């Protein structure tokens, strides 16, 4: 059933293509190029897309099929759009006389559903490169070359390299990133402010810096953070919590080799409690002068330790099925 | 009365002689336990070298033993990386091989002719015993309590985090490197505490040995300067530090530069720069210190300090400048990927493709360290109690070790020692508190209350928790509870370690074990079957093309030249193999001819359900090939339009036509009734008609089809395209040859 | 038996001397004999050829004769082994001395000289039986086959038994393992037989022929089915290590095994192999080693480690070691491997009245295969305990097969002077000679037996003392 719309749209495509041919490629290129000069990358709709990409054409088109609308929750789309615009801008500015005869365009899903369907696209963003069918740079095959973002986000430079590969012996002006003045200003102010405040607050800061407790706390916390797999979260960009089949939230990822953000924080907390109770037993308790208080403290900390450890083991059994060891109460 | 009993028990080890004797005995037992717990694989299978890299080390060791040291030193190996060859002598860390070579010859001198293989297999366990001893020494430097060292030793001896790389047969650099690491640290602490040149020189000596053994020496190279730097920042500069560091750096650097593979890196690459910078800075401080001692004067000192800071800044700036101008090489890729964690995935797919370079999830930590992982912070906290120089070292080591371990699984190895030391300190302080016979009298604490104020004042700089004086534990019941609890945890730890070792870390991935229906063990030995076949029934110089994972094994077991191996020094060459594997036959054949390939070896788990096979690794070949030939190999083409990676009827054309796919499934469906062919790894039904090969012949297939070897056909006798030749033999009328892709190469 | 062994060995040592120095000899040998009747039996049932020549010889010279000559071509000589000559009439008159006499290296025909124990008077007759083996005697025909095809071998020989003397009456019988013999050379018959050979079952008979002159040959070729592997052991090194302290004799055998059958036309295809599981087949799948009863803890390895496909059945009656190669052996494939086992010393070692020791072990213990096994080079090394002296040996292996025998020193675990070991090299043996005895006698004084423990204890004591001294050494600089 899902073929029907695709088929229809394909039909539409062909017809519009036929119509489009009435305008010569020259004119089309001229018009779109002026647009491109005006904006960064030409924003397209179904119709204009077909007109632009209609064969025969003596120019090439690089079009980004994107889904910016937050409803689709496409993170990479939003990340990549500015890069693409930047690339388009610096390229088009780069050769005003349009010797590369390349037009950058963007087609958003909301404007061009039919096109998306006709390609049967499941994912976005996707970049299509249409080689010219006539003229000096004419390519053998008229069908577009597709670029999927299989290995993640691509910077403007990487995309530039790809396009430049597909447009050999043509000028390929490099990407010019605009200098981010605001950033500079902000950083300088922050630096200056920080410096002055540090200078002013030095007498007050110094004791803090020289305080052992602070350093102890800092180092213990960072150790806990690292040993509870936060770096994994950082590198693999794991979700904070998971969603199971029935749409409910799961806090512990199944399997030995993956985890959720919250899970790791939880584990870090458990380690912290265990370590703290061990510390108390080792350091604080023997310094309690009152026998009764001391007794209570001993059993309290010992109880917490035991309880936590047993809980930790039970959670580990969740991660690693077939782990044989356990402590009461969490058998 | 129980007190008397405990007293009696405690009296056993009173005399110094008895104590030291007890210690020696205990340490020997610990070493024994460490060795014994690493012998699972030998008992279960046999004395065999494990996995991949060890096979190269083994081969190199045999070469060393056979041809002597100097030939080994300038060994050019023309049987790998055909046709490039490899300057093996200059591109390996010789420490491991030389160590076992020395042991071998020493035993020979004693008329104990032990087979070199057994020495290599048992080297790692033997050194693990030494490592336990080294951590005993290191811990004794940290605390005064005698029990801590022994605890650290046993922890180190059986902690899975270390066992994972040192079971019998895993004959890899880490086998000896960890011992050297710990021992070097011990010597460093010793040198620092005594400020003695002798210990500093010893430290440098073992540092040199470490450099000769493992690339991980950079960890020491960065940690010691860092420690010194922290000490300086804490205002703890002393002549002891000066002497220790200067001696270590000067001698150690010279020693490290003797290794061909290291050469001038210590003065040219960024990862060594901190050491150099601190060295310079220390000279400066030494000078200032001298001047200050000579000339008093408040503002003069401040001036000097500013001067020092200025110089330091200038030096740093110069360093940065030199780096940016390219006099100093920036971080090497492997090293850099530790900081910029996303780096490798984009730029160095080969590094990213190795499983042990992945970040560590928290279960791995618990799996490898069990309860130590939560005793560890407690121990580090104890270090803050009286924060002497050596304790600073532990803190710094702990922080960096845990960071690196979090970024890369294999660096769990460098974390383990400090975890053991810290955990042992915590554990021993617990025992010292609760395992004492004498209890304080309740009336003592009145006095304590009085002296408390003073104590508070005294401990202003110290930790808050230690402000009060120690009283001791009153009730024996409490003591009993705690001690029994700790004992329980320790027993659990031992059980855990044994379980992990026997289940996770004791299979020599060359031999696979499976359970028969009756529960008996059945050995699946396809790898060696195929390698032995290659060794016996192919020409001595037959070139074998396979994915790089198997290069070392082919070199070691089949003794045949390979195109690529696990020493991935030439990305392009690997990419070439990847291209040959992932392209159509018409494309691959010329590549194979140009590289004089005689046999192609693939690993196929489809029949047995062996998941580590080449089809599962295939995407990495494609990616690495795509990195070099983006226009000829495209990862996208190997996915279905819906973006799935499939091998059944739905598979993409590029997949079905790729050499790897064809070789893996060639003739496979003939094993099954028509249409029933089943891939047990991917769990899919394969298409009715299997792939056909026109440029390769099936030469050998192991019993369970895990290894398949194909012979590359010679050029066709009548100069035909192989495809046509096959078609002709199948009796199909010769149509007009449709040119598809590049024609097969004609070299005669 | 023992006596005969000793006798043979004693002679064998003599015979070396003879064989190594060319004897002055007229060529061809003088016509002093006549073969009154000769039966030549060629048995091609196994993958080597065993030939039996039973001949009634008659002295036609004037004076008594005691030397009989049998001709061989030089290429046969290279593959000739296990020559034994017996008197057919009385079995207990032990094997006659027989050795190759090298008259003239350039000639293509060389002679085996048979020394009769007692000279034969003129006109007298005697029946002697000459038996010998020829290794890699066959050519596969066709040379390459598919997995599923049967294997055919061809053997060419002379229908008239080659002889240095006139033969008045003779016939040649050829026996095969299978009755399927597609082609063989046909000869015109004589007497009531239309044509030779006569085929009955798996047997061909050429002859009887009438008188033939000396050196007459009639080359014929037979091509027969042999659907079994052709087992050729290029090299066998066999170590027998005696330990008095351990009361143990350790055996280790290193084989270089080659399957000499027809090669594969196409490469090995696992699918086909798994499909065609024919009962009798030219593929070597398994070897069975019947070891001496009481053999224990065997091992089976090759250059890259242990081989798991082996099975050892041991009880009071037998000790059978069944091993499978890592891969099935096809024609032209090679598979070197090592097996070893232990056995209680008292099964092999006796103490003589004079205080010496006598070791009696099998010279050769190969696998027992239905199709037979042939050994090109065999080296047996008997490693005696450290300090054993005046070593003597005797063996029942045909003396002509033994190439050399010498006593050397072998140094191994914790030896101070090294172990006396006897190395015997032999060639062209076949598995018919399994369990032929090798008897080694030697003296082993008590001092020698005590040397090792004393040395070890002393050295370890010295070591600990050294450690202790080091421990007490004070490395501090004196303040």
From TrEMBL, chain A:
UniProt signal peptide: 1-20
Cell compartment(s), UniProt: Endoplasmic reticulum membrane
Keyword terms: Endoplasmic reticulum, Membrane, Signal, Transmembrane, Transmembrane helix
Pfam families referenced in this protein's UniProt entry, alphabetically: OST3_OST6 (PF04756)
Residues forming coiled coils: none
Gene Ontology cellular-component annotations: oligosaccharyltransferase complex
Entries under InterPro entries matching the protein: OligosaccharylTrfase_OST3/OST6, Thioredoxin-like_sf
Membrane topology qualifier: Multi-pass membrane protein
Alphabetized SUPFAM superfamilies for the sequence: Thioredoxin-like
GO biological process: protein N-linked glycosylation via asparagine
Bilayer-spanning residue ranges: 181-202, 214-232, 266-283, 295-316
CDD domains associated with the record: PDI_a_family
Entry's family note: Belongs to the OST3/OST6 family.
Reported function: Subunit of the oligosaccharyl transferase (OST) complex that catalyzes the initial transfer of a defined glycan (Glc(3)Man(9)GlcNAc(2) in eukaryotes) from the lipid carrier dolichol-pyrophosphate to an asparagine residue within an Asn-X-Ser/Thr consensus motif in nascent polypeptide chains, the first step in protein N-glycosylation. N-glycosylation occurs cotranslationally and the complex associates with the Sec61 complex at the channel-forming translocon complex that mediates protein translocation across the endoplasmic reticulum (ER). All subunits are required for a maximal enzyme activity.
Name of the featured protein: Oligosaccharyl transferase subunit
Taxonomic placement: Eukaryota, Fungi, Dikarya, Ascomycota, Pezizomycotina
Automatic annotation (TrEMBL), chain B:
GO molecular function ontology, one term from the record: metal ion binding
Biological role: Catalytic subunit of the oligosaccharyl transferase (OST) complex that catalyzes the initial transfer of a defined glycan (Glc(3)Man(9)GlcNAc(2) in eukaryotes) from the lipid carrier dolichol-pyrophosphate to an asparagine residue within an Asn-X-Ser/Thr consensus motif in nascent polypeptide chains, the first step in protein N-glycosylation. N-glycosylation occurs cotranslationally and the complex associates with the Sec61 complex at the channel-forming translocon complex that mediates protein translocation across the endoplasmic reticulum (ER).
Biological process per Gene Ontology, one example term: post-translational protein modification
Domain (STT3/PglB/AglB core) ranges: 544-593
Cofactor(s) essential for the protein: Mn(2+); Mg(2+)
Family according to the record: Belongs to the STT3 family.
Enzyme class name: transferase
UniProt-listed InterPro entries: Oligo_trans_STT3, STT3-PglB_core, STT3_N
Positions of the Oligosaccharyl transferase STT3 N-terminal domain: 22-422
Pathway: Protein modification; protein glycosylation
Transmembrane feature ranges: 21-43, 91-107, 119-138, 144-163, 175-192, 241-261, 273-291, 303-329, 364-384, 391-409, 473-495
Official protein name in the record: Dolichyl-diphosphooligosaccharide--protein glycosyltransferase subunit STT3
Subcellular location: Endoplasmic reticulum membrane
Enzyme Commission code: 2.4.99.18
From TrEMBL, chain C:
Residue intervals passing through the bilayer: 454-475
GO biological process: protein N-linked glycosylation via asparagine
Main localization category: endoplasmic reticulum
Function noted in UniProt: Subunit of the oligosaccharyl transferase (OST) complex that catalyzes the initial transfer of a defined glycan (Glc(3)Man(9)GlcNAc(2) in eukaryotes) from the lipid carrier dolichol-pyrophosphate to an asparagine residue within an Asn-X-Ser/Thr consensus motif in nascent polypeptide chains, the first step in protein N-glycosylation. N-glycosylation occurs cotranslationally and the complex associates with the Sec61 complex at the channel-forming translocon complex that mediates protein translocation across the endoplasmic reticulum (ER). All subunits are required for a maximal enzyme activity.
UniProt family annotation: Belongs to the OST1 family.
Subcellular location: Endoplasmic reticulum membrane
Pathway: Protein modification; protein glycosylation
Signal sequence, start to end: 1-19
Name assigned to this protein: Dolichyl-diphosphooligosaccharide--protein glycosyltransferase subunit 1
Subunit: Component of the oligosaccharyltransferase (OST) complex.
Membrane topology designation: Single-pass type I membrane protein
GO CC, alphabetical: oligosaccharyltransferase complex
Key words of the record: Endoplasmic reticulum, Membrane, Signal, Transmembrane, Transmembrane helix
The UniProt record lists the keyword Membrane: yes
PANTHER family hit by this protein: DOLICHYL-DIPHOSPHOOLIGOSACCHARIDE--PROTEIN GLYCOSYLTRANSFERASE SUBUNIT 1, RIBOPHORIN I
């Amino acid at each position: 059933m899902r073929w029907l719309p695709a088929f229809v749209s394909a039909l539409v495509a062909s017809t519009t293509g036929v119509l489009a041919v009435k305008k010569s490629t020259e004119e089309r290129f001229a018009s779109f190029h002026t647009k491109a000069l005006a904006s960064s990358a030409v924003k397209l709709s179904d119709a204009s897309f077909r007109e632009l990409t209609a064969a025969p054409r003596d120019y090439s088109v690089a079009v980004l099929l994107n889904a910016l609308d937050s409803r689709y929750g496409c993170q990479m789309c939003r990340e990549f759009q500015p890069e693409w615009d930047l690339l388009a801008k610096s390229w088009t500015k780069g050769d005003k006389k349009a010797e590369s005869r390349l037009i950058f365009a963007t087609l958003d899903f909301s404007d061009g559903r039919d096109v998306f369907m006709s390609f049967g696209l499941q994912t976005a963003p996707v970049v299509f490169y249409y080689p010219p069918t006539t003229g000096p740079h004419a390519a053998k095959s008229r069908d577009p070359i597709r670029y999927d973002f299989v290995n993640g986000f691509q910077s403007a430079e990487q995309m530039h390299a790809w396009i430049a590969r597909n447009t050999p012996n043509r000028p390929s002006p490099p990407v010019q990133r605009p200098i981010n003045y605001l950033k500079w200003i902000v950083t300088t102010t922050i630096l200056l402010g920080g410096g002055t405040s540090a200078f002013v607050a030095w007498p007050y800061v110094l004791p803090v810096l020289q305080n052992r407790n602070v350093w102890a706390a800092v180092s213990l916390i960072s150790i806990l953070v690292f040993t509870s797999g936060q770096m994994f979260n950082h590198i693999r960009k794991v979700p904070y919590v998971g969603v199971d089949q029935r749409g409910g939230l799961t806090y512990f990822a199944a399997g030995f080799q993956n985890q959720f953000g919250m899970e790791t924080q939880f584990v870090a907390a458990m380690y912290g409690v265990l370590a703290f109770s061990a510390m108390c037993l080792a350091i604080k308790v023997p310094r309690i002068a009152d026998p009764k208080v001391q007794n209570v403290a001993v059993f309290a900390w010992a109880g917490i330790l035991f309880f936590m450890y047993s809980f930790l083991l039970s959670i580990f059994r969740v991660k690693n099925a077939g782990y044989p060891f356990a402590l009461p109460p969490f058998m | 009365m129980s007190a008397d009993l405990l007293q009696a028990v405690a009296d056993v080890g009173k005399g110094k002689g008895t104590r030291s004797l007890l210690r020696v005995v205990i340490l020997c037992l610990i070493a024994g336990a460490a060795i014994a717990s690493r012998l699972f694989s030998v008992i279960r299978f046999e004395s065999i070298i494990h996995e991949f890299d060890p096979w190269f080390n083994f081969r190199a060791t045999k070469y060393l033993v056979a041809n002597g040291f100097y030939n080994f030193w300038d060994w050019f190996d023309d049987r790998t990386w055909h046709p490039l060859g490899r300057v093996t002598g200059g591109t390996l860390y010789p420490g491991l091989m030389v160590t076992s070579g020395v042991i071998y010859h020493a035993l020979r001198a004693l008329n104990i002719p032990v087979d070199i293989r057994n020495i290599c297999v048992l080297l790692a366990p033997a050194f693990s015993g030494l490592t336990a001893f080294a951590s005993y020494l290191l811990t004794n430097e940290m605390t005064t309590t005698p029990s801590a060292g022994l605890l650290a030793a046993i922890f180190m001896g059986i902690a899975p985090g270390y066992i994972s790389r040192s079971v019998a047969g895993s004959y890899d650099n880490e086998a000896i490197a960890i011992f050297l690491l710990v021992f070097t640290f011990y010597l460093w602490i010793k040198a620092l505490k005594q400020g003695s040149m002798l210990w500093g020189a010893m430290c440098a000596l073992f540092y040199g040995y470490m450099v000769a053994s493992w690339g991980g020496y950079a960890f020491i190279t960065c940690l010691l300067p860092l420690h010194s730097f922290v000490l300086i920042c804490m205002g703890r500069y002393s002549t002891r530090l000066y002497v220790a560091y200067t001696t270590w750096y000067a001698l150690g650097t010279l020693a490290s530069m003797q290794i061909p593979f290291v050469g001038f890196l210590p003065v040219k690459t960024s990862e060594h720069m901190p050491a150099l910078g601190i060295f310079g800075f220390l000279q400066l401080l030494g000078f200032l210190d001298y001047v200050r001692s000579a000339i008093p004067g408040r503002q003069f000192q401040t001036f000097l300090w500013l001067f020092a800071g200025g110089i330091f800044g200038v030096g740093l700036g110069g360093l940065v400048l030199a780096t940016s101008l390219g006099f100093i090489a920036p971080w090497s890729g492997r090293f850099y990927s530790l900081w910029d964690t996303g780096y490798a995935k984009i730029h160095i797919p080969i590094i990213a493709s190795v499983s042990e370079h992945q970040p560590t999830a928290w279960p791995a930590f618990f799996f490898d360290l069990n309860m130590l992982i939560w005793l560890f912070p407690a121990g580090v906290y104890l270090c803050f109690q009286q924060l002497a120089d050596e304790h600073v070292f532990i803190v710094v080591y702990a922080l960096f070790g845990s960071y690196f371990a979090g970024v890369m699984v294999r660096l769990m190895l460098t974390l383990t020692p400090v975890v053991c030391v810290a955990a042992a300190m915590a554990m021993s302080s617990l025992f010292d508190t609760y395992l004492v016979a004498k209890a304080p009298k309740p009336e003592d604490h009145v006095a304590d209350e009085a002296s408390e104020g003073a104590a508070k004042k005294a401990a202003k700089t110290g930790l808050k928790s230690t402000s009060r004086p120690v009283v001791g534990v009153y009730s024996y019941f409490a003591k009993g509870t705690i001690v029994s609890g700790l004992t329980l945890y320790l027993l659990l730890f031992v059980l855990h370690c044994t379980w992990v070792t026997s289940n996770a870390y004791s299979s020599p991935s060359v031999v696979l074990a499976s359970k028969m229906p009756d529960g008996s063990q059945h050995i699946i030995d396809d790898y060696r079957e195929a390698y032995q076949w290659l060794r016996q029934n192919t020409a001595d110089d037959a070139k074998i093309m396979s994915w790089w994972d198997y290069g070392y094994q082919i070199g070691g077991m089949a003794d045949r030249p390979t195109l690529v191996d696990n020493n991935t020094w030439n990305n392009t060459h690997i990419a070439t193999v990847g291209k040959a594997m992932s392209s159509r036959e018409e494309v691959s054949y010329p590549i194979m001819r140009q590289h004089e390939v005689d046999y192609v070896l693939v690993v196929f788990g489809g029949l047995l359900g062996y998941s580590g096979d080449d089809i599962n690794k295939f995407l990495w070949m494609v990616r690495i090939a795509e990195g070099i030939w983006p226009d000829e190999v495209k990862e996208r083409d190997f996915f279905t339009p819906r973006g799935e990676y499939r091998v059944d009827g739905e598979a993409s054309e590029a997949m079905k036509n790729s050499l790897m796919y064809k070789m893996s499934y060639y003739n496979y469906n003939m094993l099954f009734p028509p249409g029933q062919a089943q891939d047990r790894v991917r769990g899919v039904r394969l298409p009715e008609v299997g792939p056909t090969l026109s440029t390769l012949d099936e030469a050998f297939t192991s019993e369970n089809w895990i290894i398949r070897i194909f012979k590359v056909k010679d050029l066709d006798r009548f100069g035909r395209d192989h495809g046509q030749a096959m078609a002709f033999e199948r009796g199909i009328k010769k149509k007009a040859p449709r040119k598809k892709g590049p024609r097969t190469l004609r070299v005669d | 038996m023992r006596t005969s062994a000793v006798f043979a060995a004693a002679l064998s040592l003599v015979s070396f001397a003879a064989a190594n120095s060319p004897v002055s000899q007229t060529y061809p040998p003088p016509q002093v004999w006549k073969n009154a009747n000769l039966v030549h039996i060629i048995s091609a049932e196994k993958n080597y050829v065993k030939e039996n020549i039973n001949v009634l010889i008659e002295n036609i010279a004037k004076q008594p004769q005691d030397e009989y000559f049998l001709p061989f071509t030089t290429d046969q000589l290279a593959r000739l082994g296990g020559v034994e000559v017996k008197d057919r009439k009385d079995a207990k008159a032990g094997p006659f001395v027989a050795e190759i006499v090298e008259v003239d290296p350039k000639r293509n025909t060389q002679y085996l000289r048979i020394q009769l124990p007692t000279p034969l008077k003129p006109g007298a007759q005697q029946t002697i039986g000459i038996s010998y083996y020829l290794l890699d005697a066959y050519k596969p025909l066709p040379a390459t086959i598919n997995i599923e095809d049967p294997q055919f071998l061809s053997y060419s020989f002379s229908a008239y038994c080659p002889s240095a003397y006139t033969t008045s009456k003779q016939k040649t019988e050829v026996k095969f393992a299978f009755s399927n013999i597609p082609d063989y050379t046909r000869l015109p018959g004589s007497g009531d037989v239309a044509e030779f050979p006569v085929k009955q079952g798996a047997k061909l008979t050429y002859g009887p022929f009438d008188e033939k002159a000396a050196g007459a040959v009639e080359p014929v070729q037979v091509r027969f089915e042999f659907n079994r592997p052709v087992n050729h052991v290029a090299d066998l090194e066999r170590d027998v290590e005696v330990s008095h302290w351990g009361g143990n004799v350790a055996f280790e055998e290193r084989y270089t095994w080659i399957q000499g059958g027809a090669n594969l036309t196409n490469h090995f295809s696992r699918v086909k192999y798994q499909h065609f599981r024919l009962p009798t087949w030219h593929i070597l799948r398994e070897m069975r080693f019947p070891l001496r009863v009481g053999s224990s803890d065997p091992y089976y390895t090759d250059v890259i480690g242990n081989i798991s496909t082996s099975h050892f059945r041991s009880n009071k009656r037998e000790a059978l070691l069944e091993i499978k190669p890592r891969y099935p052996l096809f024609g032209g494939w090679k598979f070197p491997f090592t097996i070893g086992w232990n056995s209680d010393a008292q099964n092999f070692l006796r103490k003589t009245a004079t205080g010496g020791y006598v070791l009696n072990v099998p010279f050769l213990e190969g696998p027992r295969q239905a199709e037979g096994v042939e050994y090109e080079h065999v080296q047996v090394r008997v490693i005696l305990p450290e300090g054993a002296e005046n070593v003597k040996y005797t063996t029942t292996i045909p003396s002509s097969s033994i190439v050399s025998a010498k006593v050397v020193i072998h140094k191994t675990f914790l030896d101070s002077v090294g172990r006396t070991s006897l190395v015997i090299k032999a060639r062209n043996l076949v598995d018919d000679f399994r369990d032929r005895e090798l008897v080694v006698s030697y003296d082993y004084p008590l001092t020698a037996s005590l040397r090792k423990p004393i040395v070890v204890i002393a050295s370890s004591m010295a070591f600990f003392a050294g450690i202790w001294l080091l421990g007490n050494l004070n490395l501090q600089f004196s303040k």
